[in-house]
Design brief:
heterodimer; A: alpha/beta; 6-stranded mixed sheet; 4-stranded antiparallel sheet; 10 strands; 33% helix; globular; B: 10 helices; 84% helix; 0% strand
Amino acid sequence: MSVEPVVRIIGVRKVFGLVAVLDSVSLDIRAGEAVALLGANGAGKTTLLKILATLLRPTRGAATIAGHDVARAPEAVRPLLGVVAHGAWVYDDLTARENLRFWATVGGLDAYADDLTVALAGVGLERVADARVRTFSAGMKRRLSLARVMLARPRVLLLDEPFAGLDQRARKWLEGRLEAMKAAGAALLMVTHSFGRELGIADRLAVLAGGRIALDTARGTLGPDDVQRLYAAHAEESA
Amino acid sequence: MSYARRALAVAWKDLAVERRSKETLNALVFFSLLLLFVFQFTLGGDRERLAAVLPGVLWLGFVLSALLALGRTFLVEREHDCWEGLLLAPGDKSAIYLGKLAGNLALMLVVEALVLGLFVVFFDIDLGRALPGLLVVVLLGTLGLAAVGTLFAAMTANVRARELLFPVLLLPVQIPVLLATVKATEALLLGEPLGAVGHWVKLLLAADVVYVVVSLLTFDVVLEA
């Protein structure tokens, strides 16, 4: 792992109306590192992810991706990002291959037919590459979303509940893909409120509560029960 | 090159989705048929009365269809959760605008061709010599409608009561286009040559250039807002 963080969040505050959703949040993520961001509903996890994704501006503080300020230089940040959001970003009436080609072109990538085939094979969708996405399950759409991200080879991957709605087999498969992207040097920030096996890919755990990072610790050998205990202790303390 | 490829990709995607789902097209064709039936019942067979109101009726049909089609332009992106994806696409966002405009223009022209055909049948009109000039006026008028409509559709896609706000914003801005198209269509249907309505065509051209340029320059800000 390199020493310099790829993602730096320094004292970020975000206020909606009179409500401060985030208050002085600071967090670093290095290349090849995965951080699981835990928190209750409404804790501000998705808000933080949207700030990093350049979709929201922080009220105060700063966040940088590879040295570029997300609020001041979003155009420099966006090519470095891969975002897997709640929605899969797919058009039901296009085929899987057409969806990938569209996002690659709009993203300014030179994606050739072979690249698309490789990306689809990488997520196990090569056999349904020319089927309309309308016929896909939620898990298949999630895979297609990941193929879109993999095609761009992002330096930073922002994942909002990536395992939501997936069965056990698909979860295991997604873990493998994310491990591979991590090994290739991508920095991962994974928002979740699950304490299941998906936390296995995380090198660090951060708990967001009361608008702050209440806990930031190496996952080490912590099991799901340990994580749940830690989470409960810090989340309740800060709430 | 990348700019043109991105614009083409957006236009291709919109048309492919519409060709396969036919969601907007089916609704527009049905709506246009309904309008023509209502006009036919209201106006009856009085030729003099018809001649006086036909240009306005024709453009009313076009504008109402356009309002329905353009209003959905960016709702499709929201329905597919793709709005954020477009926002995060690197590069000049005006390529997305151009692609959307091209897609809208193509869809509107298909519907207008159909409405015009039905119009001829319903009201027993002989377009004959007026057709080439009418095509020019329709093309320029539709471009003006689509140019601002695409921009305002993006502007209102994320607000409440967008169905009300969209026409309220769009129609006042369209006054020069509506005035020029209705007046030019009236003259052409009365048998005057295109040259005789040159001033209206120039107004349409000027409005189109202004609308497209302003939309291209402001689309990035509108999308990011």
